[in-house]
Structure formats: structure tokens, C-alpha cells
Design a protein that fits this description.
By secondary structure, the chain is an alpha+beta fold. It is 53% helix and 8% strand. The chain is built from ten helices and six strands; from the N terminus they run E-H-E-H-E-E-E-E-H-H-H-H-H-H-H-H. Residues 10-102 form the GST N-terminal domain. InterPro entries: Glutathione-S-Trfase_C_sf (IPR036282), Glutathione_S-Trfase_N (IPR004045), GST_UstS-like_C (IPR054416), Thioredoxin-like_sf (IPR036249).
Length: 249
């Protein structure tokens, strides 16, 4: 019997393959809910063609608000015919379509979840110099060429020149710590999750980004070990709590 849900993600050279924080948000949700699915791997330059094969519009527009921007994740549920893009929309679809599975957006918290996620992700900008070169290094050749071209065009510098060194790296790392410290202050001391003992979509989003940082920095790196210990070990504890949902199928 075939699996009804196909989850589209971007491959890498990593043993686990999956790396993107945006796709991990939705993958975590599928794993948490225990909904069967299978992954189909799509290289960066093939994402636009995938959308067009389904006849669905671009998931976003670039900063010029004109150019179509095709992103993953994309989910196709053949049992309903639904094709959903973007992690938040995928999670809302799963909540509605599979109501007997564990909930990620408790009733009455949709706006609060969205606000927290937007605020949290606004604190993730300082990680770009650490992560974009690292992502470029783990992609397959076709995706690497696409990633390099698009990122260098938007930033005006080469991937190699994005990498911070020396005092610049130290200062940039301090900004990352300060930004995560702001998030730590939003939360109740001693609580692992935003709403206390039960994880919600806000926590899955944070964990997806922390997982991404672990990949970018390297699990055995001094920087990852340092980050794990920041703010009374909040980020290391969060990462540990979500290991059970890291299956890639």
C-alpha cells in the first residue's frame, strides 16, 4: 500500500540528508503526529518545475515583490488531492485534516504561535555568515551552483567572503548569543517549551533552527558546544528534546 503523503525536501551530502530549517519545521510535525509519509528529494534548480508540474503558484515573491520565488517544503496528500507549500500552512493543514493526531497549535493560540515564531525568526539573522557558507558546502553540485549564484547575487559578495574571521567572527558570534538571549528572556525560566510542558509549533520552529545551527557549526565544534550551554543550557536541552522526532523517511 503506497503512502498518501509525499514530502518534498532539498537533499544534501549529510548522512541524514535533510538540513533546511524550513523543511524541518514541517518534518518534525509529521513525525510528532505519527502521520506516514515518504520524502522525495528535489534539487534547488528543480523546485520551480515541481511547482509548475502541479499547477500551483509560487510559494512567495522575492524582495522586489514581483519575481516568483519557489521554496520547499511542499506536501502532496493524494488522499485529499491537497498540495500545500510553506511549513506553517502544512502544519495547519495537518491539524485540520488529521484531527486525531497530537496537536501542535492548541485551540485559541494560532495568533500567539504566529507572533512568537515571527519574533523568534527575526532573531536568527545574525547566523547567516556562519550558515550560508556551510550550507553551500553540503549541497550536491547542481544545488550548490544554484545556491551560490542566487546568494551571491543577492548579497553582492562571494560565498567565501561571507565567512567571518578573527575579530569579526568574535563580534558576530556575540550578536548570535545576544539575540538568542532575548528569546531566552521571553520564556519562563526552567521551562523547555514555550507553553510549559507540552511542545507546540513554536518549539518545533525553534528546534528546527537550532538543529540547523548544529549542522552549520558542526556537532563537534567548540562553537556548537558553547551555544548548547548558553542560557542555562536552554538550546542544548531543546535539541535533546527533539531528537526523537528527527527521523527522515
Amino acid at each position: 500500500m503506497s503512502t498518501a503523503i509525499v514530502f518534498y525536501d532539498i537533499p544534501s551530502k549529510l548522512p541524514i540528508n535533510a538540513w533546511s530549517p524550513n523543511t524541518w519545521k514541517a518534518r518534525y510535525a509529521l513525525n510528532f503526529k505519527g502521520i506516514p509519509y515518504r520524502t522525495e528529494w528535489i534539487e534547488y534548480p528543480d523546485i520551480e518545475g515541481l511547482y509548475k508540474s502541479f499547477g500551483v503558484p509560487a510559494s512567495a515573491t522575492k524582495k522586489d515583490r514581483v519575481t516568483p520565488y519557489y521554496t520547499l517544503p511542499l506536501l502532496h496528500d493524494s488522499s485529499t488531492g491537497a498540495i500545500i507549500s510553506e511549513s506553517a500552512a502544512i502544519v495547519e493543514y495537518l491539524e485540520t485534516t488529521y484531527p486525531d493526531t497530537p496537536r501542535l497549535i492548541p485551540p485559541g493560540t494560532r495568533a500567539l504561535q504566529a507572533a512568537f515564531i515571527a519574533a523568534f525568526e527575526s532573531q536568527m539573522k545574525a547566523i547567516a555568515p556562519f550558515c550560508e557558507p556551510a550550507v553551500n558546502a553540503i549541497l550536491s553540485p547542481r544545488s550548490e551552483a544554484f545556491f551560490r549564484k542566487t546568494r551571491e547575487e543577492s548579497s553582492g559578495v562571494t560565498i567565501e567572503d561571507m565567512i567571518p574571521h578573527g575579530e569579526h567572527r568574535t563580534r558576530q558570534w556575540a550578536v548570535v548569543k545576544d539575540d538568542l538571549g532575548k528569546v531566552d528572556k521571553w520564556m519562563t525560566k526552567g521551562d523547555t517549551f514555550v507553553m510549559g510542558e507540552t511542545p507546540t509549533f513554536a518549539d518545533f520552529t525553534m528546534s528546527a533552527w537550532i538543529f540547523f545551527l548544529r549542522i552549520c557549526l558542526g556537532e563537534d565544534s567548540p562553537e556548537w558546544k558553547e551555544l548548547s550551554s548558553w542560557h542555562d543550557g536552554r538550546w542544548g536541552t531543546l535539541a535533546k528534546s527533539f531528537e526523537k522526532y528527527e527521523a527522515v523517511v
